[in-house]
Amino acid sequence: xxxxxxxxxxxxxxxxxxxxxxxxxxxxxxxxxxxxxxxxxxxxxxxxxxxxxxxxxxxxxxxxxxxxxxxxxxxxxxxxxxxxxxxxxxxxxx
Length: 94
Hints:
Elements: H1 3-37, H2 51-63, H3 65-73, H4 90-93
């Protein structure tokens, strides 16, 4: 195996490890938060009514979709939740 192939293989392994590792950390933190709030789905980041939260949370949902499907297929994962309906509770109006 030449050195160029070794470098490509090493980079692929590093990328895969980072992909799986960040998914595991973000999703399991989200599962714990969802359990606390009694939600079926989960958010990769704590919900906030901002465009930044929306883009990062849904960006993660898109980027991690393949591994999330495998996680659910194995019976270990959950589907990401849809965006909360901001401003519908009386608490938000006080």
